[in-house]
């Protein structure tokens, strides 16, 4: 059995998106705020993490910065896994505003992450995301303890929880 410590990234600095008018995946380049950095340093002291053998991380800046702090504090290697990225609100990679992101997110929530029968959407469905994240987790089943630095929506496809605070640890066991 493998224990995965799913750690949501620290608080990100979303205002950068509006300042630079970032589009699509460019919107995922934001770093952590000073509070987000403090959150991760505090999380790194959790005794459960002392058993970890490896950190795997989403490629997005906020998760990588979280993984880097954990790596420094726990002296663990980081492996970047592209498929640990967060939910894709627009599979065409064209959305460019917080307003549009909220609209896509609201539509996702209204449909519980499932495309209505006979329809398609711009956003990535819950089942698509669950399969993508699960595929990454499967690759690390030979370890006993693995830290995953990633995102709330992505983690909620594997572990049933309503909301995940920043820098929060979910202990997730898988056989």
Summarize, please.
With 175 residues, the protein is an alpha/beta fold.
Identify low-pLDDT runs: none
Most strands sheet: 5 strands, mixed
CATH superfamily: Phosphoglycerate mutase-like
Let me know the number of strands.
5
Number of domains: 1
Q: Average pLDDT, to the nearest integer?
A: 94
What is the CATH class?
Alpha Beta
Share of helical residues: 25-40%
CATH architecture: 3-Layer(aba) Sandwich
| CATH fold node name | Rossmann fold
Q: What do these coordinates show?
A:
This is Broad specificity phosphatase PhoE. One of its GO terms (molecular function) is phosphatase activity. It holds the Pfam family His_Phos_1. InterPro entries: His_Pase_superF_clade-1, His_PPase_superfam, PGM_Phosphatase. It comes from Paenibacillus aquistagni. The protein is an alpha/beta fold. The chain has one domain: Rossmann fold. The protein contains six helices and five strands. The chain has helices spanning 15-20, 34-43, 61-74, 98-110, 126-138, 152-156; strands at residues 2-8, 54-57, 78-80, 145-150, 169-174. The chain has a five-stranded mixed β-sheet with strand order 3-2-4-1-5. β2, α3 (61-74) and β3 (78-80) form a beta-alpha-beta unit. α2 crosses α3. The longest helix has 14 residues, at 61-74. The radius of gyration is 16 Å and the shape is globular. It starts with a strand and ends with a strand. The relative contact order is 0.26. The mean pLDDT is 94.
């Amino acid at each position: 059995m493998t224990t995965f410590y799913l750690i949501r990234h620290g608080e990100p600095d979303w205002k950068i998106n509006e300042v630079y008018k970032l589009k699509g995946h460019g919107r995922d380049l934001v770093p952590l705020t000073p509070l987000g950095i403090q959150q991760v340093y505090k999380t790194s002291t959790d005794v459960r993490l002392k058993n970890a053998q490896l950190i795997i991380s989403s490629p997005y800046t906020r998760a990588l910065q979280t993984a880097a702090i954990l790596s420094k504090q726990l002296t663990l290697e980081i492996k970047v896994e592209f498929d640990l990225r967060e939910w894709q609100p627009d599979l065409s990679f064209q959305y460019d505003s917080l307003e549009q992101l909220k609209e896509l997110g609201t539509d996702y929530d209204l449909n519980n992450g499932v495309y209505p029968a006979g329809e398609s959407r711009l956003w990535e469905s819950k089942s698509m995301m669950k399969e993508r994240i699960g595929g990454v987790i499967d690759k690390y089943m030979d370890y006993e303890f693995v830290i995953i630095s990633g995102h709330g929506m992505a983690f909620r496809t594997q572990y049933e929880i309503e909301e995940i605070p920043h820098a929060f640890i979910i202990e997730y066991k898988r056989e």
